[in-house]
Amino acid sequence: GMGAPTMRFSMPFEGGTENTPREIERIPDAMVAASTDVTRGDGHVDLRFYHLLTCLNFKVSNHNETNAVVVRGLRLKGTFYRSIEIDMAGDEVRYPADAYSGTFVFLDGAREEDDVNVTYGSPAEKIGGKSLMLVPYLGEAGIYIDYTFMGTEHTDKYIGDVANFLPMSGTIYTVELNFIGDAFVISFVVDNNQTWENGGDSDLEFE
User: What span, in angstroms and rounded, lies between the C-alpha atoms of 130 and 150?
Assistant: First the structure.
């Protein structure tokens, strides 16, 4: 039939509780492309692909000049939106109400050799070496951290949420955890390059 389609992408998770483990590696880099008012006689169709999801990296900076902070674990847990719906007819993006709950682990604290020792002036970039892709409408999720400072261990400490953060599709953000005094202050920063590390290797233009 004729007319513009409605497309829907859903994350590979459903249900669960905030303690349900979710594998970051299972999330696909979902992309979409469309060209309107094209007829069979037009021949070649130029498509420009766009990333549907937003991407988060975590960074820890220590603003205490005299003592290091050791990060042993880092998790994002809560309830997340599951789907994106794109109505090509109205050029509209919607976020259906379906959701899933769970925990995304960047650093699990299982091995001491994985601990991240953060000293003044030497921030730890991309904690755990992981980037998390999510539906841009984030839902209700909190950041929890295990850390040691001046000999005192803190486990599963809630340091803030992402409820008021409204990211954009196709953009990579760094969630900066700034250790100031004896507490973490969170800020969200757009990465300078704003592009995925793994782009396409075809002749298509990826944005």
Answer: 27
